[in-house]
Structure formats: C-alpha cells, structure tokens
Amino acid sequence: MKKLAMALAASVIMAGPAIAADAAAGKDKSAMCAACHGAAGVSAVPMYPNLAGQKEAYIAKQLSDFKSGARKDPVMSGMAMPLSDADVADLAAYYGSLK
C-alpha cells in the first residue's frame, strides 16, 4: 500500500508541470536557447541536438538534470541553473509543440 501511495504521489508531481505548462511563454523564454539549438529548435551545428518535436517530459527531465547536476555539461548546467520549474515546463511545452 505504501508503494502504491508513493507511485501515485510521484505521478502527480511529474504531471503537475506538464499541466501548468505554457508553450507561448516557453517561446518567449527560448531566445537563450536559439544560439545553439536554432530559432525554431533545429540546430545548424551538428554537435547540438534539435529540440523541436522532442517529447515534453524528456526536455523537462534533461533541463532538470542539468540544473541539479545529475547530468553534467558546463554550458547547459549554467543555462539551466537559473530556470524555475515553470520555466522548464514552459520551454518543454514550447519545443514539444514544434514539428
């Protein structure tokens, strides 16, 4: 029963940012991402990944991992550090909405 309650709580926490995400706000916040990942989320530089069309949950997890230090990259860690949870959700919603 305790495991079920923990799984339910984790599901609610994970779903929370996705429900409150605002793709339009994410577009406004994406200017800092455009230098490496392209204005429309498609990078012209082979070493930088395309963000357009990525799944929201994947983008949110990667940004959160860069922010927490669970995933390491000197540039992305610095870019993710000042992002709030709402910023992460909004950016994920924006890039997830692009085709």
Q: Count the helices. How many?
A: 6
Total number of strands: 0
Overall mean pLDDT stands at 88
CATH homologous superfamily descriptor: Cytochrome c-like domain
Largest sheet: none
Principal-axis shape equals: globular
Radius of gyration: 14 Å
Which short descriptors sum up this protein?
mainly alpha, 0% strand, 99 residues
Please describe what this structure looks like:
- The chain has six helices and no strands.
- The protein is mainly alpha-helical and 99 residues long.
- It has one domain (2-97): Cytochrome Bc1 Complex, Chain D, domain 2, CATH 1.10.760.10.
- The longest helix is centred in the N-terminal third of the chain and has 19 residues, at 2-20.
- It starts with a helix and ends with a helix.
Report a brief summary of the structure.
The protein is 67% helix and 0% strand. The protein has 99 residues and is mainly α.
Please give the structural blueprint:
Layout: H1 2-20, H2 23-29, H3 31-37, H4 56-68, H5 74-80, H6 85-97
Helix pairs in contact: 2-6, 4-5, 4-6
